Amino acid sequence: YKKINSLANDLWNRELPITADRGLILDRNGKLLAGNITTTSLIVVPRQIKDKEKTAKALSEALNTTYDNIYGHITKNTSIERIHPEGRGLSYDVADKINSLNLNGVYLLKESKRHYPYNNVLSHVLGYVGIDNQGLSGIEYTYDKYLTGTNGAIKYLSDGKGNRLNISESYSEPYNGFNVLLTIDIDLQLAIENELDIAMSKYNADNALIIAMNPKNGEILGMASRPSFDSNNYKKYDIETINRNLPIWKTYEPGSTFKIITYASAIEENVVNIFDDTFYDSGSVKVSGATLHCWKHEGHGMQTYLEVIQNSCNPGFVSLGQKLGKETLMKYIKKFGFGKKTGVDLNGEAKGILFKEEKMGEVELATTAFGQGISVTPIQQVKAVSAAINGGNLYTPYIVKGIEDPVSHELVLQNKKHL
Q1: Model-level pTM?
Q2: Distance, C-alpha 279 to centroid of its chain
Q3: Helices (H), 114-233
Q4: In degrees to the nearest 10, what's the CA dihedral of 345, 350, 355, 359?
Q5: Which of 116, 113, 118, 56 is CA-nearest to residue 90?
Q6: Mind listing the pLDDT tens digit for each residue in 11-31?
Q7: Coil, strand or helix: which one is 371?
Q8: CB–CB of 19/111 below 8 Å?
Q9: Beta-carbon neighbour count of residue 49 at 10 Å?
Q10: Active-site residue identified among 60, 256, 312, 375
Protein backbone atom coordinates (compact mmCIF):
# COMPACT_ATOMS: atom_id res chain seq x y z
CA TYR A 1 0.00 0.00 0.00
CA LYS A 2 2.76 2.45 0.95
CA LYS A 3 4.58 1.80 -2.32
CA ILE A 4 1.42 2.30 -4.40
CA ASN A 5 0.59 5.47 -2.45
CA SER A 6 4.09 6.81 -3.03
CA LEU A 7 3.89 6.14 -6.78
CA ALA A 8 0.49 7.83 -6.93
CA ASN A 9 1.84 10.92 -5.16
CA ASP A 10 4.74 11.09 -7.61
CA LEU A 11 2.21 11.20 -10.46
CA TRP A 12 0.10 13.94 -8.89
CA ASN A 13 2.65 16.15 -7.14
CA ARG A 14 4.74 18.70 -9.01
CA GLU A 15 6.99 21.48 -7.79
CA LEU A 16 8.68 24.54 -9.26
CA PRO A 17 12.05 25.17 -7.57
CA ILE A 18 12.88 28.42 -5.76
CA THR A 19 16.62 28.77 -5.35
CA ALA A 20 18.07 29.92 -2.05
CA ASP A 21 20.57 32.75 -1.90
CA ARG A 22 24.16 31.72 -1.46
CA GLY A 23 25.69 32.98 1.78
CA LEU A 24 27.58 36.28 1.68
CA ILE A 25 31.36 36.55 1.94
CA LEU A 26 32.39 39.53 4.06
CA ASP A 27 35.70 41.10 5.08
CA ARG A 28 36.81 41.44 8.72
CA ASN A 29 34.78 44.67 9.06
CA GLY A 30 31.61 43.36 7.44
CA LYS A 31 32.18 44.82 3.97
CA LEU A 32 30.65 42.77 1.14
CA LEU A 33 33.11 40.80 -0.99
CA ALA A 34 30.72 38.33 -2.63
CA GLY A 35 26.94 38.71 -2.78
CA ASN A 36 23.97 37.88 -4.98
CA ILE A 37 21.85 39.56 -7.60
CA THR A 38 18.34 38.47 -8.62
CA THR A 39 17.91 37.08 -12.12
CA THR A 40 15.10 35.37 -14.02
CA SER A 41 15.25 31.84 -15.45
CA LEU A 42 12.99 29.89 -17.77
CA ILE A 43 11.41 26.53 -16.86
CA VAL A 44 8.90 24.54 -18.90
CA VAL A 45 6.54 21.69 -18.02
CA PRO A 46 6.42 19.73 -21.32
CA ARG A 47 3.11 17.95 -20.59
CA GLN A 48 1.31 21.27 -20.07
CA ILE A 49 2.38 22.61 -23.48
CA LYS A 50 -0.46 21.97 -25.96
CA ASP A 51 0.98 23.50 -29.14
CA LYS A 52 4.64 22.54 -29.03
CA GLU A 53 5.47 23.90 -32.50
CA LYS A 54 4.03 27.34 -31.72
CA THR A 55 5.72 27.42 -28.29
CA ALA A 56 9.11 26.37 -29.68
CA LYS A 57 8.93 29.06 -32.37
CA ALA A 58 7.95 31.81 -29.92
CA LEU A 59 10.57 30.90 -27.32
CA SER A 60 13.39 30.45 -29.83
CA GLU A 61 12.71 33.92 -31.21
CA ALA A 62 12.58 35.46 -27.74
CA LEU A 63 15.78 33.73 -26.64
CA ASN A 64 17.57 34.24 -29.97
CA THR A 65 18.34 30.54 -30.32
CA THR A 66 17.33 27.76 -32.74
CA TYR A 67 13.88 26.27 -33.06
CA ASP A 68 15.30 22.74 -32.83
CA ASN A 69 17.06 23.54 -29.56
CA ILE A 70 13.87 24.73 -27.84
CA TYR A 71 11.73 22.02 -29.43
CA GLY A 72 14.12 19.43 -28.00
CA HIS A 73 13.60 20.83 -24.52
CA ILE A 74 9.81 21.08 -24.59
CA THR A 75 9.30 17.58 -26.02
CA LYS A 76 11.41 15.80 -23.40
CA ASN A 77 9.72 13.07 -21.38
CA THR A 78 10.24 14.85 -18.08
CA SER A 79 8.02 16.59 -15.53
CA ILE A 80 10.03 19.85 -15.44
CA GLU A 81 12.71 21.03 -17.88
CA ARG A 82 15.08 23.93 -17.29
CA ILE A 83 16.06 25.85 -20.43
CA HIS A 84 19.77 26.58 -20.15
CA PRO A 85 22.07 28.27 -20.75
CA GLU A 86 19.87 30.48 -22.97
CA GLY A 87 17.09 30.56 -20.38
CA ARG A 88 19.22 31.52 -17.37
CA GLY A 89 19.97 35.04 -16.24
CA LEU A 90 17.41 36.58 -18.60
CA SER A 91 17.42 40.33 -19.09
CA TYR A 92 14.32 42.25 -18.04
CA ASP A 93 13.30 42.86 -21.66
CA VAL A 94 13.53 39.18 -22.65
CA ALA A 95 11.72 38.03 -19.49
CA ASP A 96 8.98 40.61 -20.07
CA LYS A 97 8.57 39.49 -23.68
CA ILE A 98 8.22 35.81 -22.67
CA ASN A 99 5.77 36.71 -19.94
CA SER A 100 3.60 38.63 -22.41
CA LEU A 101 3.31 35.53 -24.64
CA ASN A 102 1.10 33.80 -22.00
CA LEU A 103 2.26 30.33 -23.06
CA ASN A 104 0.90 27.27 -21.25
CA GLY A 105 3.53 25.28 -19.37
CA VAL A 106 6.10 28.09 -19.54
CA TYR A 107 7.26 29.60 -16.22
CA LEU A 108 9.62 32.41 -15.28
CA LEU A 109 11.30 31.91 -11.92
CA LYS A 110 13.38 34.31 -9.87
CA GLU A 111 16.88 32.99 -9.19
CA SER A 112 19.97 34.14 -7.37
CA LYS A 113 23.21 34.75 -9.24
CA ARG A 114 26.60 35.23 -7.59
CA HIS A 115 28.08 38.72 -7.86
CA TYR A 116 31.51 40.05 -6.90
CA PRO A 117 31.33 43.84 -6.47
CA TYR A 118 35.12 44.30 -6.68
CA ASN A 119 35.49 42.24 -9.89
CA ASN A 120 39.21 41.27 -10.08
CA VAL A 121 40.02 42.11 -6.46
CA LEU A 122 40.82 39.10 -4.23
CA SER A 123 39.71 36.84 -7.08
CA HIS A 124 41.97 33.87 -6.34
CA VAL A 125 40.99 33.91 -2.66
CA LEU A 126 37.26 34.26 -3.25
CA GLY A 127 37.24 31.90 -6.24
CA TYR A 128 34.12 31.53 -8.36
CA VAL A 129 30.93 29.49 -8.74
CA GLY A 130 29.55 27.40 -11.61
CA ILE A 131 26.26 27.76 -13.46
CA ASP A 132 24.36 26.04 -10.64
CA ASN A 133 25.95 28.25 -7.96
CA GLN A 134 28.29 25.51 -6.73
CA GLY A 135 31.71 26.65 -5.49
CA LEU A 136 34.54 25.69 -7.84
CA SER A 137 37.56 27.47 -6.40
CA GLY A 138 38.87 29.48 -3.43
CA ILE A 139 36.62 30.24 -0.46
CA GLU A 140 33.60 29.44 -2.63
CA TYR A 141 34.89 25.87 -2.96
CA THR A 142 36.49 25.28 0.44
CA TYR A 143 33.44 26.57 2.37
CA ASP A 144 30.78 25.50 -0.15
CA LYS A 145 28.89 23.38 2.40
CA TYR A 146 28.33 26.48 4.56
CA LEU A 147 27.63 28.92 1.73
CA THR A 148 25.09 26.69 -0.03
CA GLY A 149 21.50 27.26 1.07
CA THR A 150 18.45 24.97 0.93
CA ASN A 151 16.15 25.53 -2.03
CA GLY A 152 12.41 25.98 -1.63
CA ALA A 153 9.58 25.21 -4.06
CA ILE A 154 6.06 26.02 -5.17
CA LYS A 155 4.20 22.70 -5.01
CA TYR A 156 1.05 21.98 -6.98
CA LEU A 157 -1.07 19.04 -8.14
CA SER A 158 -1.42 17.84 -11.74
CA ASP A 159 -3.55 15.21 -13.44
CA GLY A 160 -2.18 12.09 -15.09
CA LYS A 161 -1.34 14.03 -18.25
CA GLY A 162 0.63 16.65 -16.35
CA ASN A 163 -2.06 19.36 -16.57
CA ARG A 164 -2.09 21.69 -13.61
CA LEU A 165 -5.16 21.28 -11.39
CA ASN A 166 -7.01 24.26 -10.02
CA ILE A 167 -6.21 23.37 -6.44
CA SER A 168 -4.41 25.57 -3.95
CA GLU A 169 -0.62 25.55 -4.10
CA SER A 170 1.80 25.12 -1.20
CA TYR A 171 4.93 27.16 -0.69
CA SER A 172 8.17 25.75 0.70
CA GLU A 173 10.44 28.57 1.84
CA PRO A 174 14.10 28.58 0.73
CA TYR A 175 16.80 28.98 3.40
CA ASN A 176 19.83 31.04 2.51
CA GLY A 177 23.38 29.81 3.09
CA PHE A 178 25.56 30.89 6.01
CA ASN A 179 27.71 34.00 5.68
CA VAL A 180 31.48 33.54 5.71
CA LEU A 181 33.52 36.21 7.52
CA LEU A 182 37.12 36.61 6.36
CA THR A 183 40.24 37.92 8.10
CA ILE A 184 40.83 40.08 5.00
CA ASP A 185 40.84 43.88 5.35
CA ILE A 186 39.44 45.12 2.03
CA ASP A 187 41.08 48.55 2.39
CA LEU A 188 44.50 46.93 2.78
CA GLN A 189 43.59 44.50 -0.02
CA LEU A 190 42.83 47.36 -2.40
CA ALA A 191 46.21 48.94 -1.61
CA ILE A 192 47.89 45.58 -2.30
CA GLU A 193 46.12 45.22 -5.63
CA ASN A 194 47.22 48.71 -6.63
CA GLU A 195 50.85 48.04 -5.75
CA LEU A 196 50.80 44.83 -7.79
CA ASP A 197 49.48 46.69 -10.82
CA ILE A 198 52.26 49.26 -10.45
CA ALA A 199 54.93 46.55 -10.12
CA MET A 200 53.66 44.60 -13.13
CA SER A 201 53.71 47.74 -15.27
CA LYS A 202 57.05 49.03 -14.00
CA TYR A 203 58.98 45.77 -14.39
CA ASN A 204 56.98 44.18 -17.22
CA ALA A 205 56.76 41.09 -15.00
CA ASP A 206 55.22 37.74 -15.85
CA ASN A 207 53.73 37.45 -12.38
CA ALA A 208 53.79 39.04 -8.95
CA LEU A 209 52.26 38.40 -5.55
CA ILE A 210 51.80 39.89 -2.09
CA ILE A 211 50.77 38.34 1.24
CA ALA A 212 50.02 40.36 4.37
CA MET A 213 49.67 38.23 7.53
CA ASN A 214 49.48 39.06 11.21
CA PRO A 215 52.52 37.22 12.64
CA LYS A 216 50.93 37.05 16.08
CA ASN A 217 48.02 34.78 15.11
CA GLY A 218 48.20 33.72 11.43
CA GLU A 219 45.32 35.91 10.21
CA ILE A 220 45.75 36.75 6.52
CA LEU A 221 44.93 40.43 6.10
CA GLY A 222 45.56 40.61 2.37
CA MET A 223 46.54 38.27 -0.46
CA ALA A 224 46.73 38.85 -4.19
CA SER A 225 48.71 37.91 -7.27
CA ARG A 226 49.07 38.70 -10.95
CA PRO A 227 47.80 37.60 -13.37
CA SER A 228 44.33 37.81 -11.81
CA PHE A 229 40.82 37.37 -13.18
CA ASP A 230 37.28 38.70 -12.81
CA SER A 231 35.29 36.22 -10.72
CA ASN A 232 32.10 37.47 -12.41
CA ASN A 233 33.41 36.41 -15.82
CA TYR A 234 35.83 33.57 -15.07
CA LYS A 235 35.03 31.77 -18.35
CA LYS A 236 36.92 34.46 -20.26
CA TYR A 237 40.22 33.33 -18.74
CA ASP A 238 42.39 30.27 -19.21
CA ILE A 239 42.27 27.51 -16.60
CA GLU A 240 45.80 28.19 -15.32
CA THR A 241 45.06 31.84 -14.59
CA ILE A 242 41.90 31.18 -12.61
CA ASN A 243 43.07 28.11 -10.68
CA ARG A 244 46.62 29.03 -9.70
CA ASN A 245 46.61 31.07 -6.53
CA LEU A 246 50.31 31.97 -6.64
CA PRO A 247 50.80 32.90 -2.94
CA ILE A 248 50.00 29.31 -1.97
CA TRP A 249 50.77 27.45 -5.22
CA LYS A 250 53.96 28.98 -6.65
CA THR A 251 57.27 27.45 -5.59
CA TYR A 252 60.53 29.37 -5.80
CA GLU A 253 64.09 29.47 -4.51
CA PRO A 254 63.89 31.76 -1.45
CA GLY A 255 67.51 32.97 -1.54
CA SER A 256 68.52 35.44 1.15
CA THR A 257 65.08 35.59 2.77
CA PHE A 258 65.77 32.01 3.93
CA LYS A 259 68.83 33.17 5.90
CA ILE A 260 66.46 34.22 8.66
CA ILE A 261 65.69 30.53 9.25
CA THR A 262 69.35 29.46 9.32
CA TYR A 263 70.21 32.34 11.64
CA ALA A 264 67.35 31.62 14.05
CA SER A 265 68.39 27.95 14.14
CA ALA A 266 72.02 28.87 14.90
CA ILE A 267 70.98 31.19 17.74
CA GLU A 268 68.64 28.55 19.21
CA GLU A 269 71.40 25.91 19.10
CA ASN A 270 74.02 28.33 20.52
CA VAL A 271 76.55 27.40 17.84
CA VAL A 272 77.89 30.97 17.81
CA ASN A 273 77.92 34.06 19.96
CA ILE A 274 76.64 36.60 17.44
CA PHE A 275 78.27 39.55 19.28
CA ASP A 276 81.72 38.11 19.99
CA ASP A 277 82.44 35.35 17.46
CA THR A 278 83.84 36.52 14.13
CA PHE A 279 84.04 35.34 10.53
CA TYR A 280 86.37 36.51 7.77
CA ASP A 281 84.77 36.88 4.34
CA SER A 282 87.15 37.01 1.41
CA GLY A 283 84.33 37.12 -1.13
CA SER A 284 84.03 33.38 -1.67
CA VAL A 285 84.36 30.02 0.03
CA LYS A 286 85.32 26.58 -1.30
CA VAL A 287 83.15 23.60 -0.36
CA SER A 288 84.01 20.14 -1.68
CA GLY A 289 85.63 21.61 -4.76
CA ALA A 290 82.81 24.08 -5.46
CA THR A 291 83.37 27.83 -5.11
CA LEU A 292 80.45 29.71 -3.55
CA HIS A 293 80.52 33.49 -3.91
CA CYS A 294 79.32 36.36 -1.78
CA TRP A 295 77.22 39.03 -3.47
CA LYS A 296 80.04 41.46 -2.61
CA HIS A 297 82.87 40.43 -4.92
CA GLU A 298 85.71 41.65 -2.67
CA GLY A 299 84.04 40.25 0.45
CA HIS A 300 83.17 41.86 3.76
CA GLY A 301 86.42 41.12 5.57
CA MET A 302 86.40 40.44 9.29
CA GLN A 303 82.92 40.67 10.84
CA THR A 304 80.93 39.43 13.78
CA TYR A 305 78.12 36.97 13.16
CA LEU A 306 75.69 39.80 13.88
CA GLU A 307 77.28 41.63 10.94
CA VAL A 308 77.07 38.45 8.86
CA ILE A 309 73.27 38.75 8.79
CA GLN A 310 73.38 42.53 8.51
CA ASN A 311 75.56 42.13 5.41
CA SER A 312 73.63 39.08 4.13
CA CYS A 313 77.00 37.40 3.66
CA ASN A 314 76.73 34.05 1.84
CA PRO A 315 80.07 32.58 3.04
CA GLY A 316 79.11 33.54 6.60
CA PHE A 317 75.93 31.52 6.27
CA VAL A 318 77.85 28.60 4.80
CA SER A 319 79.84 28.70 8.05
CA LEU A 320 76.64 28.69 10.13
CA GLY A 321 75.29 25.74 8.12
CA GLN A 322 78.48 23.78 8.71
CA LYS A 323 78.39 24.53 12.42
CA LEU A 324 74.79 23.30 12.61
CA GLY A 325 75.31 20.22 10.42
CA LYS A 326 72.76 18.83 8.01
CA GLU A 327 70.76 16.86 10.60
CA THR A 328 70.23 19.86 12.87
CA LEU A 329 69.64 22.36 10.06
CA MET A 330 67.08 20.09 8.39
CA LYS A 331 65.40 19.49 11.74
CA TYR A 332 64.84 23.22 12.14
CA ILE A 333 63.80 23.73 8.53
CA LYS A 334 61.08 21.14 9.03
CA LYS A 335 60.12 22.62 12.42
CA PHE A 336 59.60 25.95 10.66
CA GLY A 337 57.05 24.20 8.41
CA PHE A 338 58.96 23.78 5.15
CA GLY A 339 58.47 20.68 3.02
CA LYS A 340 54.77 20.35 3.87
CA LYS A 341 51.57 22.31 3.33
CA THR A 342 50.81 25.07 5.82
CA GLY A 343 47.17 24.00 6.11
CA VAL A 344 45.80 27.39 5.00
CA ASP A 345 42.05 27.07 4.36
CA LEU A 346 42.27 27.49 0.58
CA ASN A 347 42.45 24.85 -2.13
CA GLY A 348 45.44 24.29 -4.42
CA GLU A 349 48.30 24.62 -1.92
CA ALA A 350 51.74 23.22 -2.84
CA LYS A 351 54.35 21.94 -0.35
CA GLY A 352 57.68 22.91 -1.91
CA ILE A 353 60.79 20.75 -2.34
CA LEU A 354 63.61 20.06 0.13
CA PHE A 355 66.78 18.04 -0.24
CA LYS A 356 66.45 14.54 1.16
CA GLU A 357 68.73 14.48 4.17
CA GLU A 358 70.44 11.24 3.12
CA LYS A 359 71.31 12.80 -0.26
CA MET A 360 72.65 16.06 1.15
CA GLY A 361 76.37 16.52 0.66
CA GLU A 362 78.56 19.38 1.87
CA VAL A 363 77.64 21.56 -1.12
CA GLU A 364 73.87 21.00 -0.66
CA LEU A 365 74.22 21.82 3.05
CA ALA A 366 76.11 25.01 2.20
CA THR A 367 73.66 26.26 -0.44
CA THR A 368 70.62 25.40 1.68
CA ALA A 369 72.04 27.56 4.48
CA PHE A 370 71.72 30.67 2.29
CA GLY A 371 68.49 29.67 0.55
CA GLN A 372 69.58 28.19 -2.76
CA GLY A 373 68.80 24.76 -4.18
CA ILE A 374 65.54 24.39 -2.25
CA SER A 375 61.98 25.31 -3.15
CA VAL A 376 59.35 26.94 -0.92
CA THR A 377 55.96 28.59 -1.32
CA PRO A 378 55.33 32.24 -0.38
CA ILE A 379 52.84 31.25 2.33
CA GLN A 380 55.40 28.85 3.85
CA GLN A 381 58.00 31.62 3.95
CA VAL A 382 55.60 34.09 5.58
CA LYS A 383 54.55 31.47 8.15
CA ALA A 384 58.17 30.61 9.00
CA VAL A 385 59.43 34.20 9.25
CA SER A 386 56.43 35.04 11.44
CA ALA A 387 57.52 32.32 13.85
CA ALA A 388 61.05 33.74 13.88
CA ILE A 389 59.82 37.18 14.97
CA ASN A 390 56.86 36.35 17.23
CA GLY A 391 58.72 34.35 19.86
CA GLY A 392 58.74 30.99 18.10
CA ASN A 393 55.03 30.27 17.65
CA LEU A 394 54.32 28.53 14.32
CA TYR A 395 50.75 29.56 13.53
CA THR A 396 48.67 28.00 10.77
CA PRO A 397 47.72 30.77 8.31
CA TYR A 398 43.96 31.14 7.96
CA ILE A 399 41.58 33.35 6.06
CA VAL A 400 38.14 32.57 7.50
CA LYS A 401 37.35 34.26 10.79
CA GLY A 402 33.93 32.73 11.34
CA ILE A 403 30.64 31.43 9.97
CA GLU A 404 27.55 33.60 10.56
CA ASP A 405 23.84 32.81 10.60
CA PRO A 406 22.26 34.99 7.85
CA VAL A 407 19.15 35.79 9.92
CA SER A 408 20.35 36.26 13.52
CA HIS A 409 23.89 37.28 12.46
CA GLU A 410 25.20 35.21 15.34
CA LEU A 411 28.46 33.29 14.87
CA VAL A 412 27.83 29.59 14.32
CA LEU A 413 31.53 28.75 14.12
CA GLN A 414 34.45 30.96 14.98
CA ASN A 415 38.09 30.90 13.91
CA LYS A 416 39.65 28.24 11.67
CA LYS A 417 40.63 25.87 14.49
CA HIS A 418 36.92 25.27 15.21
CA LEU A 419 35.93 24.53 11.60
Answers
A1: 0.84
A2: 46
A3: 123-126, 138-142, 144-147, 186-203
A4: 110
A5: 113
A6: 445 566 778 899 999 999 999
A7: coil
A8: yes
A9: 21
A10: 256
